[in-house]
Amino acid sequence: MSEPGLLVRSEGAVRILVNSNHAARNAITPALYDALPAALEEAARDPAIGAIVLTGDGDFFCAGGDLRQLATRRELRPEGRRAKVERLHDLVRSIRACPKPVIAAVEGGAAGAGMSLALACDMLVAARGAFFSMAYVKVGLSPDGGATAFLSRFLSRQLLTELCLLGERLPAERLHQLGAVNRLSEPGQALTEALALAARVADGPANANARIKRLCENAGAAGLDEQLDLEAELMVQSQGGDEAQEGIKAFFAKRAPDFTALRQSSAGQRQE
């Protein structure tokens, strides 16, 4: 049996990252703490890559933390436990800090920290019948991984509290209604749907995409004046770039802009 780890492959301009721990429903492993941030950083540096898809191996996204490992945390001093939690939080930070859009493809379910990883992504595709669960309370734990922050952006305090206190399964269809899931797919087709969405994103202007991601990340907590300042700063950068030149030329020429050529040109310059 192969060791749990992160499988990495590409389809065109889309980098696919597969959390592979099939025997434990893709529970998070110590290896993933190092491998996922490194893979995201490598994809961010590669100008040939325009978008990233994060998924689980087989028919389940991620069961969260490995309870066999969590059971030993009691033996650690508080600062040791905090260091372990921060490794998970660094995974979440790496997804949010990646300048390229990251799309989660969820089959089966995402529980505990697995739900946190899915919600940390910029967009989320889930199969019908998949579930999400803040299951921490069922094993005497409180949430981590940023799930309460992400959920609070689209849930009322009352519903968020209910989800965390009861740990009940929330169907993907319900999260879609609430706005947290971008696309619903048929069972077994979440990755296919996510790849199609990622390919559309990857065809867009890479630098503008990174700026848009930054704006969307900042908007949830920023006041109007702060957000206006950031929009102005990033618009100034955009207006001076090759992507805007190509996009505006294409508009007046009544043709589709070729942002892919700009990305490939950057990739060629990188190899030289």
Task: Please identify the structural class as seen in this structure.
Answer: alpha/beta
Proportion of residues in helical segments: 40-55%
Segments where pLDDT lies below 50 for 5+ residues?
none
Number of helices: 12
Please tag this protein with its features.
six-stranded mixed beta sheet, globular, 272 residues, 51% helix, three-stranded mixed beta sheet, 12 helices, 15% strand, alpha/beta
Please describe what this structure looks like.
Helix 1 links the parallel strand 2 and strand 3. 51% of the residues lie in helices and 15% in strands. The strands form two sheets. A six-stranded mixed β-sheet has the order 1-2-3-4-6-9, with helices on both faces. It is globular. The chain has 272 residues and is of the alpha/beta class. Helix 1 packs parallel to helix 3, helix 3 packs parallel to helix 4 and helix 9 packs antiparallel against helix 10.
